[in-house]
Specification:
heterodimer; A: seven-stranded mixed beta sheet; four-stranded antiparallel beta sheet; B: about 110 residues; about 0% helix
């Protein structure tokens, strides 16, 4: 079954860290470009980060640059997002999604809440 | 950054009607434009890419058009299952950007 499953979300305080994971199955993960996209409660979609198949190309939204780090482990079919110095405004459902251009496959999302 | 602006914010339609959703880019994105449907509590689903190509298993009543800076998503023969928020997304450059969404309601 072709799917993406995110995990690692939770409730943290401002300034703390969290690591999200995205487990891929049913397709060749090592050949897949991957993104993280987030959605604040009741709001629209915000692209967060992109990583190429061999991690040679990485992009970040300005809002997370310097605080978030995207990575992948092709041997484990997994994508990660290390989030440091979290802010209240980082609270959102975080989705991983596949492919370089349009995104035909999304996970179900994991909720991150940053609150004191 | 390419800003994507969608209109209207909300569209209230009757079953069977045709809904027309607009998406405007602040600069040309050629035809590098996708549309997504998001129902409450669900992840977005790809409907259209390349401005007009339907994704796998998307019904023919969903159609996309446009190029450059002006794009349209049309939904003909509206059904109750089409109640959702629809987003456009450009993939012409970085950062990837989404419109703010159009909510389709059925009266």
């Amino acid at each position: 079954q072709v799917q993406l499953v995110e995990s690692g979300g939770g409730l943290v305080k401002p300034g703390e860290s969290l690591r999200l994971s995205c487990a891929a199955s049913g397709f060749t993960f090592s050949d897949s470009y991957m993104h993280w996209i987030r959605q604040s409660p009741g709001k629209g979609l915000e692209w967060v980060s992109f990583i190429s198949t061999r991690a040679s190309t990485i992009y970040y939204a300005d809002s997370v640059k310097g605080r978030f780090t995207i990575s992948r482990d092709n041997a484990k079919n997994s994508l990660y997002l290390q989030m440091n110095s979290l802010r209240v405004e980082d609270s959102a459902v975080y989705y991983c999604a596949r492919d370089r251009y349009q995104m035909p496959l999304w996970g179900q999302g994991t909720l991150v809440t940053v609150s004191s | 950054e390419t800003v994507m602006t969608q209109s209207p914010a909300t569209l209230s339609m009757s079953p069977g009607e045709t809904a027309t959703l607009s998406c405007r880019a602040s600069q040309s994105v050629d035809r590098n434009l996708a549309w997504y449907q998001q129902k409450p509590g669900q992840a977005p689903r790809l409907l259209i890419y390349g401005a007009s190509t339907r994704a796998t298993d998307i019904p023919a009543r969903f159609s996309g058009s446009g190029s450059g800076t002006e794009f349209t998503l049309s939904i003909s023969g509206l059904q109750s299952e089409d109640i959702a928020v629809y987003y456009c997304q450009q993939y012409n450059d970085w950062p990837r950007t989404f419109g703010q969404g159009t909510k389709v309601e059925i009266q």
